């Protein structure tokens, strides 16, 4: 039985690139080490590439981390001078810090 042909839009197309020999050799070597064809390796590399960080997010994260640092210093001071009731208040602050850090990590992973 003959194999069914793919629809035209589902077929791969031959592409052509220009590259210096010194750039091609490491690509070829890396593809071989990964057990992929060069085409598969290049496609995989692009799909798995991490996008550069957004400067706005980096600034936001730096500001949040500064706030957290100040809050942790306040908690440390409070615990050093605390009595039992103040330790409970410090624990509440620590939970708030943990939640903020979790939000930062979630945002950073996007």
Compile the SSE list and pairings:
Blueprint: H1 21-34, H2 38-48, H3 55-81, H4 84-108
Structure summarized in a few sentences:
By secondary structure, the protein is an all-alpha fold. It contains four helices and no strands.
Explain the overall architecture.
- The chain is an all-alpha fold.
- Helix content is 70%, strand content 0%.
- The protein has helices at 21-34, 38-48, 55-81, 84-108.
- The longest helix has 27 residues, at 55-81.
Strand content: under 5%
- The helical percent reads over 70%
Structural class: mainly alpha
How far the N terminus sits from the C terminus, by CA atoms, comes to 48 Å
Low-confidence stretches: none
Count of DSSP strands: 0
Integer count of domains: 2
Quaternary structure? single chain
Q: Which features characterize this protein?
A:
2 domains; single chain; mainly alpha; 4 helices; 110 residues
């Amino acid at each position: 039985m003959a194999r069914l042909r793919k629809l035209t839009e589902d077929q791969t197309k031959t592409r052509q690139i220009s590259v210096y020999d010194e750039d091609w050799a490491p690509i070829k070597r890396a593809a071989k080490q990964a057990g992929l064809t060069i085409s598969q390796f290049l496609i995989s590399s692009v799909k798995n590439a991490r996008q550069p960080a957004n400067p706005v997010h980096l600034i936001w994260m730096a500001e949040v981390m500064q706030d957290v640092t100040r809050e942790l210093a306040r908690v440390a001071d409070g615990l050093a001078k605390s009595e039992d009731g103040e330790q409970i208040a410090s624990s509440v602050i620590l939970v708030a810090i943990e939640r903020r850090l979790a939000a930062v990590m979630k945002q950073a992973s996007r």
